[in-house]
UniProtKB/TrEMBL annotation:
Full protein name: Leucine-rich repeat-containing protein 71-like isoform X1
Source organism (scientific name): Cyprinus carpio
One Pfam family this sequence matches: LRR_6
Gene: LOC109112393
Biased composition annotated in UniProt, kind: Basic and acidic residues: 1-29, 331-362, 481-495
Segments of this protein annotated with the region Disordered: 1-31, 300-377, 474-495
Length: 495
């Protein structure tokens, strides 16, 4: 009898230990995200005391061991259902996610459409999103964001290592602090801020985020500001931000009540423009700094730093010079009797100095300098350093002095601009025509001017169309295509 009691007591202790080992977290702070959004979202909502937990719907293509299969009819219907929810209010709160593959831990997109997101849900998302290593896009349409909840979103975005696209549409913020998403340290490449009632102040802040004399965003490639209330004053601020920004490729300002004054400033930035006093002062500082040292510490340079077309910034000429300097320095070591003559490494350094002066003292990688000074540096070590050249906008080789002014060749990185549905007349079109003609190689490939109050058969517009038809690679392969009310192409008769 005594043995039975001891056995029973031991079993109870074992059960208690087993329960203790598998005891779930008591608070949200104790919860460790697994990377499975469905599981983590539900569990964290429960721990946060949320009574009505939004459902999670998965949009996923069908896969086989050999790859992707064609989407089934059921998948197609589900996709249509999801797309319809993006433009209408959801009857019930729902978190829509898209997976990279069959793995539920491969969430690449999170969408919230048509329901107000409270602070509790945002706290949950702020815990989950950074754990999603494949997350690339966050889409929030009419989510009822406030200045407070937007701050939470902004902090979450900064913690997501691979998040590159953010869509915040139909979310009006009194403080208009959208610019916080495109600060100098932002890694976003695509940002859509349509229909957010952005006015002059918001546009001013966005313009400053794009660039100032002392800083510039280097990663944002596409910015959609359509269907806001930016107006002429706001467009001038955006134009100011484009002066020294060399990353942005696509900009939409359609349906923003922009007139000839704002449009003219946008056009002037694309062509030759005179530097301001502040820009000239900063240019002089950069030139002096370049004379003191044409070398900078090794760093990775973004695509935006190219003044022609942001396709490649690797300099083969720099690599050639670096290799020659290395070989020559090695020969010097092998032949000490030739020390009386100028060292080949020093000659290479002088040659680089001449080239640097010719290029307006363009900063270079430290690797080029060390190649001429340190004869013991191995070639294998140098090959690990990526030597690149960067042209700072204020040191652009195309800058000239004329008539007492310093003239900049203009922003040739922007390839697409949408100004459909505004208040442009032939007056501002003439400024665009002048800038386009002066761009030469590079510059805009697409300019949307539909639904503006000018005659479509006016000479200026026809000339602009002729120029753009020769530039736009898409128009070369299509005929009879115009744009819809949003400035997007559709196949109908010629404009």
């Amino acid at each position: 009898m005594k043995k039975r009691v001891e056995k029973s007591s031991k079993e109870k202790v074992d059960k208690v230990d087993s329960v203790t080992d598998e005891e779930p977290p008591k608070t949200a702070d104790d919860y460790q995200c697994s990377g499975n959004l469905e599981l983590d979202f539900t569990e964290l909502c429960k721990l946060m005391g949320l009574k009505q937990i939004p459902s999670v719907k998965i949009k996923q293509s069908t896969f086989t061991n050999r790859g992707v299969m064609a989407r089934t009819e059921e998948d197609s219907q589900f996709q249509t259902s999801l797309e319809s929810q993006m433009t209408t209010w959801s009857s019930k709160p729902c978190l829509q996610i898209e997976l990279e593959n069959e793995d539920h831990g491969s969430v690449k997109e999170v969408k919230i459409s048509g329901w107000k997101v409270d602070e509790v849900v945002l706290q949950v998302l702020s815990r989950i999103c950074p754990s999603l290593s494949n997350l690339q896009c966050l889409h929030m349409w009419r989510a009822g964001l406030t200045d407070s909840t937007f701050t939470s979103i902004r902090n979450t975005v900064s913690l997501c290592s691979n998040l590159r696209k953010v869509v915040l549409e139909g979310n009006r913020l009194p403080e208009q602090s959208y610019h916080l998403l495109i600060g100098e340290d932002s890694m976003l490449t695509d940002l859509s801020l349509r229909n957010n009632h952005i006015e002059e102040e918001g546009a001013h802040l966005i313009g400053l985020a794009l660039s100032t004399v002392h800083s510039a965003n280097k990663n944002l490639l596409s910015l959609n500001l359509a269907f806001n209330s930016i107006g002429d004053a706001g467009a001038i601020h955006i134009a100011q931000g484009l002066r020294l920004n060399r990353s942005l490729l696509c900009l939409s300002l359609s349906y923003n009540q922009i007139g000839d004054n704002g449009a003219a400033h946008l056009a002037e930035v694309l062509g030759h423009f005179a530097l301001t006093h502040e820009e000239i002062v900063e240019r002089r500082k950069l030139l002096i700094k370049g004379e003191e040292s044409t070398m900078v510490q090794p760093s990775l340079v973004s695509l935006a730093d190219s003044h022609d077309r942001p396709l490649s910034v690797r300099s083969s000429s720099s690599l050639d010079r670096l290799n020659k300097a290395t070989k020559n320095s090695t020969k010097k070591k092998d032949n000490p009797k030739k020390d009386e003559k100028p060292a080949p490494g020093q000659a290479a350094k002088k040659e680089e100095s001449k080239v640097a002066k010719k290029d307006n003292k363009v900063p270079r990688s430290q690797a080029g300098k060390s190649a001429g000074k340190d004869n013991n540096l191995l070639v294998s070590e140098q090959e690990r350093v990526e030597v690149v050249e960067t042209v700072i906008p204020l040191l652009d080789p195309g800058i000239v002095h004329t008539g007492g002014k310093v003239i900049h060749p203009g922003n040739k990185c922007l390839t697409s601009m949408n100004l459909s549905g505004n208040k442009l007349t032939e007056q501002s079109l003439k400024v665009f025509l002048s800038s386009l003609e002066g761009q030469g190689e590079g510059g805009l490939l697409r300019l949307s001017l539909n639904r503006n109050p000018f005659h479509s058969d006016c000479d200026t517009f026809l000339k602009i169309q002729e120029i753009m038809s020769l530039r736009d690679p898409l128009k070369k392969n299509r005929s009879g295509q115009v744009e819809d009310e949003h400035g997007e192409p559709k196949t109908t008769s010629d404009a």
